Amino acid sequence: QLQASGGGLVQAGGSLRLSCVASGFTFDDYAVGWFRQSPGNGREGLSCISSGGGGTYYPDSVKGRFTISRDSAKNMMFLQMDNLKPEDTAVYFCNRIPPSIWGQGTLVTVSS
Predict the structure, then answer these.
(1) Residue from 26, 4, 15 nearest 92 by CA
(2) What is the spatial distance between Cα 43 and Cα 48, in angstroms, rounded to a whole number?
(3) Which residue among 21, 59, 78, 79 is buried most deeply as judged by most CB within 10 Å?
């Protein structure tokens, strides 16, 4: 299972760093990623990082603003979010790839 934390309320242009703790599986064996879901929309893939940490992917919507990282020693992953925009408001989730059970997520609210 993976559980995200670190969300909150931030003004547009601000930054947040999300954290995710993994348990119950061998973290190093999996690519992992961040996802988000806003009201009325489906879950959107934001970023992923390879099992070894050497490869990352970002869609155009967050490229250059979000940075994914992982710490295998702590079974954790992170998402540094900079220059946040109101449209980034959503519940953010972390999961392995392919996904396992979804955690509760953490709410990020960006005010204009």
Answers:
(1) 4
(2) 14
(3) 79
What is the DSSP code (8-state) at residue 29?
A: G
Contacts of 98 (CB under 8 A, 6+ apart): none
CA distance 71 to 76: 5
**Whether 91 contacts 105, CB under 8 Å:** yes
The 10s digit of each residue's pLDDT in 20-41 is 999 999 999 999 999 999 989 9
CA distance 22 to 38: 23
pLDDT band at 53 (very low <50, low <70, confident <90, very high): confident
